[in-house]
Amino acid sequence: MDVFGSGHEQVVFCSDPGSGLRAVIAIHSTALGPALGGTRFHPYADEEAAVADALALSRAMSYKNSLAGLDLGGGKAVIIGDPRTDKSEALLRAYGRFVESLGGRYLTACDVGTYNADLDVVARETRFAHGRSVALGGCGDSSVLTAFGVFQGMRAAAQHRWGAPTLAGRTVAVAGVGKVGGWLVDRLVEDGADVVVTDVDAAAVDRVRARHPGVDAVADTRALVRTPADVYAPCALGGALDDETVAVLAAQIVCGGANNQLASAGTAEALRRRGILYAPDYLVNAGGVIQVEDERHGFDFARAQARAAGIFDVTLRVLQAADADGVSPAAAADRLAEERMRSVGRLATIRLPR
């Protein structure tokens, strides 16, 4: 793995044998500001897989924060382990001390496997933990506005493809109905969509169907991607769109909350060749970082939601630019994000701790 060739400013390996902490913090860019990105707690197969995920996720955060109009760079942390059995106060506090040692170059928040209560513990050791519990002055569950932003991106894709910004009467297939996917289903049902879901956690499916008895479910993702639908919404882990999936996907639009949905650099073009409209993941799922960034200024949900609503306009702009330039929406989104980073004039600047 060519870490030095990845374009990252800094990669930090964090080890605390006493608590069992093994973590990687990747800072991709501080061109626009301190690097913001969540902490993922996951049982990676090996250290190389953890590093690869941290590098990919942190790079995506740079682009996400840029397109969202935030004065923030991109970073990400991964903790190696099973959050159900390995998470402890000692481990989270040890991790918090590593975050603090970076002096504000990296701002952390929640991600897969971490929750507001976990960030409350991390914050006992660092000033740079966000996405904390409402009771402690935080913004609470960022998955609420993440799902709201995905819904806005999906409305924009519907406008671009079918001429109306609504999913009413459309079938939406949602893969993964945990935090973000569950909230997204609520929005879709409210909008009048027909929804079919799947999740590796049967309890998550049961919770959704208890709220919305009209929602259908299939056994697994392999069945879901073959289910005729207007929109496919990947809302679980990354790599959801590989060559095999794209070849059989029975949907006209892909728009979901998962990070790093494209398994390879050529996947976006493969979707375009099949006539499937792709709403770039790091664009439409930016509602969460907008919510977390707002917390830094004294959280106001209405203000954060109003800003997240702007994802509709940016998505529409990206899709229109892709058509005008004859490129995939992923390429068009990258161009817009890179242009903003360049225009600030500090692309090569290393942001120092304060």
UniProtKB/TrEMBL annotation:
Binding site for NAD(+): G176, V177, G178, K179, V180, G181
One of the Pfam families matching this protein, by short name: ELFV_dehydrog_N
GO BP: any one term: amino acid metabolic process
PROSITE patterns: GLFV_DEHYDROGENASE
UniProt KW Hydrolase keyword: no
Alphabetized InterPro entries for the sequence: Aminoacid_DH-like_N_sf, Glu/Leu/Phe/Val/Trp_DH, Glu/Leu/Phe/Val/Trp_DH_C, Glu/Leu/Phe/Val/Trp_DH_dimer, Glu/Leu/Phe/Val_DH_AS, Glu/Phe/Leu/Val/Trp_DH_bac/arc, NAD(P)-bd_dom_sf
Keywords attached to this entry: NAD, Nucleotide-binding, Oxidoreductase
Glutamate/phenylalanine/leucine/valine/L-tryptophan dehydrogenase C-terminal domain boundaries: 140-349
Keyword presence, Oxidoreductase: yes
A GO term, aspect molecular function: oxidoreductase activity, acting on the CH-NH2 group of donors, NAD or NADP as acceptor
Active-site annotation: K76
SUPFAM superfamilies in the record: Aminoacid dehydrogenase-like, N-terminal domain (SSF53223), NAD(P)-binding Rossmann-fold domains (SSF51735)
Family as reported in the entry's similarity comment: Belongs to the Glu/Leu/Phe/Val dehydrogenases family.
Name of the molecule in the record: Valine dehydrogenase (NAD+)
